[in-house]
Structures are given as structure tokens and as C-alpha cells.
Amino acid sequence: MLGMAMSTMSRARLERRLARCFSSATSATGKLSVLCFLGTTRNDGPPFPTRVGSRVAAYSASLLKKHGHAVEVVDPLELDLPLLRKPEFAYQRGEQPKVLSELAEAIRSADAFVMISPEYNHTASPALLNTLNHFGSSIFSYKPSAICTYSQGQWGGARAAVALRPILSELGCLPVSAMIHVPAAHTVFDEHGSLIKEESDWEQYFMRTFSQMEWWAMAAKNHKVLQDPFSLSPALKRQPSQRNAPK
Ligand SMILES: Cc1cc2nc3c(=O)[nH]c(=O)nc-3n(C[C@H](O)[C@H](O)[C@H](O)COP(=O)(O)O)c2cc1C
């Protein structure tokens, strides 16, 4: 009897939490807060004096906004972070440089990430990795990411994309299976991020990846109301050896 009463109570509690959770979703897909990390600081040519990546970022942001999401682009040229000296998490709380504490807060409050990288020497861009390396995985984790690579060549940065997968997995923002690769990106988008050929299939192609990201982000956001992921797998805050298998 006691067991039955308790299971009835916990079901009622679960139903209340689920009701709260679903009323907090703004629609079937919901509005998400998405951070797009841009991976280029190149600011001179030839052949292009302006970055091709800013075109890809502008197009990505406009598509996500069109689908109701709040979007910020993290631009390493504006951030102007040095090559990593000291990551944000290594500072005493309250003593982090403003640029790092503000970006940490933006990462913490985001629901999903889009990683936009050129391919440099067959791998992901150092500017993107340098930005990511300034932050610990706990503020990225339990949120999905989407990989979007581009190049002026014919492979669209596919090798950079493959290199990004393990990095994003380590950060805990698992990349969705569909990826975006834009070959000859300078011929696809103009300098404002608009499609050069409007009647093309690029929107559908980008949205296949973004829709996967959206689905996982909503699922994660809703489930966090029911279960704090860090209560099951706390962030590792002391030594890298905390990750080690037992001896
Ligand atoms: C250092 C460097 C390495 C590059 N390596 C590659 C490469 O491996 N594969 C490729 O397709 N394009 C490569 N490119 C050409 C880029 O696709 C092209 O410069 C592109 O515009 C870079 O993006 P961005 O303009 O946003 O910086 C490379 C360019 C640079 C500057």
C-alpha cells in the first residue's frame, strides 16, 4: 500500500514537472538561443580582401533567425583573443578579463552552437580552436552543435569538418550527424551573406543540419527541467586525472 501511495505521488510530481517543462517551450520547435562561432581572422587578400567566412556566418544567422531563433555570431576578429595564455576557467572567479567572462556567459546561456570553419591545410581553423580552447567543456556540454565548413576549393572544408567532430565531442556539445560543406563559398554567397543564385537548394541543405540541431537542442532543453545532467555526471573541476580509469 505504502509503495502504491508513493508511486502515485511521484507520478503526480512528474506530471507537474512535465507540464512546467512543456509550457516553457514556445512552440513545437521553440525558440532557441544559438551561438555561431566564426573561424576566420583573415583580413586581407588576394584573392579576397574580406573573409569568405563572414558571408557563410551571415547566411547561417539569417536562416536561423528566419526560423525564430535568437542568434549571435562570435567573431574572433572582433574578440581579438591572444593565442591561449590562460583559459577563462583558470582565473579566480571575478578576476576574468571582461571579454572572457562575457563570452563564457553567452556560451552558458546558449542552447546550441554552430561552428563555422574554413579549411586551412586540411584541418579546422586555428582561430576557431583558439576561441574554443579558452573555455571549459562544462559550459558547452549537454547542448548540440552543428558543423558548417566552407572553402574556396571543391571539397567545402570536409576535412576540417571531420577534424572538428572529436573536438566538439570532447567539449560535450555533440555534433549532429548532418554537416554543411560549402565548396567555392565565394560563388555561393555575396558579401552580405545573400545567395548569389536565389533559386538554388542551399536553404534546404543548411536546414537539414539546422533542423537536427534544433531537435536535439529542444530535447536537451526540455529534459534539463526534469533532470540536471550535472547531478549525474558532475563537471571535472580539479585535475585532468579525474578523467582516468581506476588503477
Ligand atoms: C592558411 C590557408 C590554408 C588553406 N588551406 C586550404 C585547404 O586545406 N583546403 C581548401 O579547400 N582551401 C584552403 N585554403 C583556401 C581557403 O579555402 C580560402 O582562403 C577561404 O577563403 C578561407 O576562408 P576565409 O576567407 O573565411 O578566411 C587555405 C587558405 C589559407 C589562408
What does this entry look like structurally?
- By secondary structure, the chain is of the alpha/beta class.
- It has one domain: Rossmann fold (3-Layer(aba) Sandwich), CATH 3.40.50.
- The protein contains eight helices and five strands, in the order αβαβααβαβαβαα.
- The protein has helices spanning 2-24, 53-66, 76-79, 98-109, 126-133, 158-171, 202-226, 229-232, and strands at 33-38, 70-74, 112-118, 145-150, 180-182.
- It has a five-stranded parallel beta sheet, with helices on both faces.
- α6 (158-171) links the parallel β4 (145-150) and β5.
- α1 (2-24) packs antiparallel against α7.
- The chain is globular, with a radius of gyration of 20 Å.
- The termini are far apart.
- The structure holds flavin mononucleotide (FMN).
- Flavin mononucleotide is lined by residues 40, 42, 48, 51-53, 118-122, 151-153, 155.
- One of its GO terms (molecular function) is FMN binding.
Top-tier CATH class: Alpha Beta
Task: Tally the helices.
Answer: 8
Strand elements, count: 5
N-end to C-end Cα span: 46 Å
Main sheet summary: 5 strands, parallel
Radius of gyration: 20 Å
- Uncertain spans, ≥5 residues at pLDDT below 50? 1-9, 20-28
Bound molecules: flavin mononucleotide
For the biggest β-sheet, the strand order reads: 2-1-3-4-5
Question: Which strand-content bin applies to the residues?
Answer: 5-15%
Mean pLDDT rating? 89
